[in-house]
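**Backbone description:**
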Amino acid sequence: EMDQNFALEDYEVEAGYVLSCQCYPISDKVVLDYDEM
């Protein structure tokens, strides 16, 4: 979940993009892979 979003457009959020600096996990397992982008 993102606390705030002032940078992404609605279509980007709908496509699954998130701001990692504004996110927090909602499950026990979290993987961040910036190289996969």
